[in-house]
Amino acid sequence: MKIDVVEALQLSPEDSARWTDLQTLQPRLDSPFLSPEWAKAVAVAQGEKGDRVKVAVIRGEDGQALAFLPARIKAGVAMPAGAPMCDYQALVSAPDVAVDPRHLLAALKAQRLDFCHMLADDETLARHGRGQADSWIVDVSAGYEAYAADRKTAGVGVLKDIDKKRRKAEREVGPCRYTPMSDSQADFDQLVAWKREQLLATGQTDLFKTDWVTKLVTDLFERRDGDFGGGLYTLHLGDELAAVHLHLRGKHTIHGWLIAHNAKFDRYSPGLLLFQDILKGMHAGSYHRLDLGTGDYRFKRELSNARQTVVFGFYGSPSPATFVRSAAWGVRQVAEALPLGRMSQLPGKAMRRIDLLRGLH
Question: Which InterPro entries does its entry note (predicted)?
């Protein structure tokens, strides 16, 4: 095997097409975050920093591309392209293709490769994970009614509760108006404003202070390509915006990305009303799955009828960068094993915050 490394924006049309074909052949890879268009969109948004977004192209003896791995290289460390805005990573490869991660590192000229949402069935890197989480998925390939019946049979009453809240909202406020693929700049701006307020209120980092994040989100909102781009979905109660989502669209998957709602309507759970509207409309088009991402939230558990495991960790060569990461993980694992209550979670929180800031800058 030979590994070529090219800048994301210099990827040839032939290799881009091959990458897309490999995704199409394997449903497990059907995520917009695993597409060549995601890597390119990140590179464009990051501008001069975008030249750090590389793609390792693994080729067979005949020169045909067998696998692709995008990464952003910074200070000798490879991280997911678009982190912390990227919700999935994987080596996008033909079936049964295994790559020695040592060769990937050498080709990328990196000492360490970090990942936070690597598909658990990735044969190259997932075995180097240090922990795992579930990504919650709603599969409506059989249609919304079949999905709703399945939820009822499973004893989950979330859809019935949503129906009740919708009736209550329409009685007390006004009719629900759902708009898929909205082009409303005002509603998009309101989404960003609500997200920033939410991040501030919960003590989290304001992602939108970083120029490339704002550019990326804006570019994807404006993109209307059939197989990739953003999708703005809105719900109005009467004349007021009640909930707004910006999701990332792939070929057959909509991935939940940025969601917010009007706190004035909390009692009606407008975000859930909007999710239901999206699910009802998906089967009429080409979308089969709504991926809600990771996070152990009740609404995700109850809406989902499938899940996909992702792992987080790193792989590194003997180097200072790998030693530092190993030491940090050692401290984290010891702390999480001790009965210290919230104190046990502090090293993990610190690592995640550091990783977030590294990705942003």
Answer: Acyl_CoA_acyltransferase (IPR016181), BioF2-like_GNAT_dom (IPR038740)
List residues bridging with 138 in a β-sheet: 290
CA quadruple 13, 19, 23, 24: dihedral sign: positive
The terminus-to-terminus CA distance of the chain in angstroms comes to 34
Class of domain 141-287: alpha beta
Structure tokens at 127: 């075995």
List residues bridging with 306 in a β-sheet. 137
152-245-360-343 Cα dihedral, nearest 10 degrees = -40
* Rounded-to-integer distance, Cα 91 and Cα 93, Å: 6
CA distance 164 to 161: 5
Token pair, residue 81, equals 């392209």
Q: β-strands 112-119, 77-79: how paired?
A: parallel
Strand 253-261 and strand 289-294: the pairing is parallel
The C-alpha atoms of residue 61 and residue 80 are separated, in whole angstroms, by: 27
- Delimit the domains of the chain by residue range: 2-132+312-325, 141-287
Mean pLDDT by 10 residues, the chain (361 residues): 93 96 90 96 88 92 93 92 94 89 94 93 90 94 94 94 97 97 97 95 93 97 91 97 97 94 96 97 85 93 95 93 88 83 81 84 86
Cβ contact 47:57 at 8 Å: no
Neighbours of 320 (CB within 10 A): 11
Prediction pTM value = 0.93
| CATH class, range 2-132+312-325 | alpha beta
Q: With the CA atoms of 83, 301, 145 and 227 taken in that order, what torsion angle do they form, in degrees rounded to the nearest 10?
A: 10
